[in-house]
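Structure tokens please, single chain.
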Amino acid sequence: MIHKLSWTKRASGLAIGATIAIIAACSTNAHSVGAQSQFLPADHLVLKSARNVDVAASTVVIPIHRGIADGKTVWYILTDASDYGVAHDLNILYAPKLANMAIGCPECVQTAKLGKPTGKFNNEAILEFEDAPDFSPTRIYQPSGTGFPPVKAAPGAVGGPRYSPYVRIDGSSIIYNMSIIATGDGPYDVTHHTNTADRVLAIDTKEDEDGPEATMLLAHGFDSGQPIVYLSTEASDPGAAAVERAIYVPLLGHAPFANGDDNLGSARERIFVFVNGPTSPDNGQGLMYLALNGNLDKDATLANSSTMGSPLNVQGDFPSLDDPRHANAYSPLWDVQLGVWTASAASAGKNVRQTDENQILNLVGQGYLTGPGGAPYGSAFDVNCPPVAYVDQRPDKDLAENVFNR
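Here you go.
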């Protein structure tokens, strides 16, 4: 069942806020986590096909590929594959959990037909997709008096009934992560995003030395105590898509499976979002912090990208971890774990910025974090957020043991 939300302010504001937190699962603040040089070193990138990662501006340049959907031109990015050899050959992320994507949800995987090579840049063949997003809706985020929850929120892009970013090429069993980020033959609207995704800041479709590429708005977060940056492209809830500046794809709510994490048949990995964390611009975290500091009511452009804030969420297993059991448990489909700090957490001074999965799970075990309205802590919605790079030190291991075995 796909859960629907009313993205309006009502009496149970904290519960709504908590739910929207799910939404913002792929965001963080670009201002408090950064590097001194303009671009990150190449060895900090986990998505090797990316380049020019500018932490201060929250931007990355990434290759785009031409496709067709319903007879019209589309442009897509390629970030993950379920096969190790293919992933490394294409300089993208290895995500073996993607092989589970169609379990119980065959429609969660779109089938694309591979056409003939064009004979142009890299002799690349054209993919024909079953469906594509509609980028024409206007994204809305109308803040309340406290910023969050909003008075109104609506996504700026909606996937068609057969659209999924997870794609199998007809005749192959490999699953790819291929988000469509623009439609049509141009010119491309990178100001109000009427034919591009809301995180697309520039598009160059020329088949020159660099090939076609797009500049995209990054999200910032943490993993294993270290700052990271990543993309945010789809969300299974409309409110989530509005906050995430992502494409609303409701069928992804059926992807296997809620609270699956590293269990048999799961296609998801956990990401941790806070509703009512600290709101200071210097050390804040969470949805209220984002709404107060993140310019959610504005469209993202190349000129204002550095001012687009986010809630500093914490990812689980990351591709750079030392232990292959955890590195290979990474998935771009993040199962949002929505946390509300309790009154006892505030009294004990525990409701501070978090950066590590196991430290968060231990706080849950101690009763300092619950779900919205005191509900059990756990899964809410999911979001597609492939990581791009780590900012300073490589995330190599968790900062703590998971003593409650959650």
